[in-house]
């Protein structure tokens, strides 16, 4: 089991994100993963840097820690050829420490190019084609591909790593878990659902299972819950809402009824190490072995200190 740290690109500047990645390596995390957004979820978050520039800077500033996108969408805002090239370059710059996390996207980020946002079954079909294109380009040489939704014409990625990055496919349901097993090398989830792990493994998946866990470190549970309410209340709407709303204003409107007590019920808040150990144990027991903590508390430096002094050793024992 590995323990990672989620870089919340929607809530911090590019330089802050790089600094947090360096600190995550220093305090003992095994990997960092960051989202690839064009917009933040809420205006109050206030940021959304370009993921690939930021990952390149992180690769140059770190030595050991793994890097991953959590996740990028290679079917609308980006063409999969661009993601194949970006991932290959990041893998080279990081000396093979990079994992390409991909998914079918959210309207929040993909609608900006005004190409529409297809329903889930079509996006899954497009994702299959994107995965085939990425893997084709990683074989080297000039390649062409003509699918139902995506095409590639006489293209070549010139700089390829010795070993292609592992592809972790985001799964919110059984169909996506099957795609992860068939065309990916790992699965990525945001809920500790053992049924997703079973679906992935039943379909032949035998790679790592990534899980993102939200926490709110603070001096008290109440302070943690208030901080989470301010910046992360959008997440309580569930994935069917999160994937479909178009702008931060819509997420703000959809989350007006969320209270601090709801945040406290949804995630670990406060500074009791046993609470953090328990939630990671639950994820491990559900079958996940790459667990990323996403801190939405008010003081990130204090969270890193807490992780180093109180959590790292305790979580290693769970492995």
UniProtKB/TrEMBL annotation:
Ranges of residues in domain Luciferase-like: 9-289
CDD domains registered for this protein in UniProt: Tetrahydromethanopterin_reductase
A GO term, aspect molecular function: oxidoreductase activity, acting on paired donors, with incorporation or reduction of molecular oxygen
Alphabetically ordered keywords of this record: Oxidoreductase
Keyword Transferase carried by entry: no
Matching PANTHER family: 5,10-METHYLENETETRAHYDROMETHANOPTERIN REDUCTASE, PTHR43244
This protein's name: LLM class F420-dependent oxidoreductase
Organism per entry: Nocardia camponoti
């Amino acid at each position: 089991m590995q323990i990672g740290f989620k870089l919340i690109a929607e809530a911090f500047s590019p330089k802050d994100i790089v600094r947090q990645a360096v600190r995550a390596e220093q305090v003992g995390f095994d990997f960092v993963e960051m989202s690839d957004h064009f917009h933040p979820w809420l205006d109050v978050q206030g940021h959304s840097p370009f993921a690939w520039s930021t990952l390149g800077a992180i690769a140059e500033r770190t030595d050991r820690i793994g890097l991953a996108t959590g996740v990028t969408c290679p079917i609308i805002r980006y063409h999969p050829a661009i993601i194949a090239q970006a991932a290959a370059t990041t893998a080279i710059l990081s000396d093979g420490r990079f994992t390409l996390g991909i998914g079918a996207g959210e309207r929040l980020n993909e609608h900006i190019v005004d190409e529409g946002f297809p329903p889930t079954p079509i996006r899954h079909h497009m994702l299959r084609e994107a995965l085939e294109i990425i893997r084709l380009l990683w074989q080297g040489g000039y390649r062409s591909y003509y699918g139902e939704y995506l095409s590639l014409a006489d293209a070549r990625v010139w700089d390829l790593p010795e070993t292609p990055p592992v592809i972790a496919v985001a799964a919110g349901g059984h169909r996506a878990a099957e795609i992860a097993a068939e065309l990916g090398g790992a699965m990525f989830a945001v809920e500790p659902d053992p049924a997703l792990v079973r679906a992935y493994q039943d379909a032949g998946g035998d790679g790592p299972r990534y899980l993102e866990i939200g926490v709110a470190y603070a001096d008290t549970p109440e302070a943690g819950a208030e901080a989470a309410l301010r910046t992360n209340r959008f997440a309580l709407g569930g994935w069917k809402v999160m994937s479909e709303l178009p702008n931060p204003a819509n997420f703000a409107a959809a989350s007006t009824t969320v209270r601090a007590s709801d945040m406290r019920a949804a995630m670990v808040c406060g500074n009791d190490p046993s609470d953090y150990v328990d939630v990671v144990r639950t994820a491990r027991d559900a079958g996940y072995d790459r667990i990323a903590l996403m801190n939405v508390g008010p003081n990130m430096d204090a969270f890193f200190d807490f992780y180093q002094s109180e959590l790292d050793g305790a979580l290693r024992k769970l492995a």
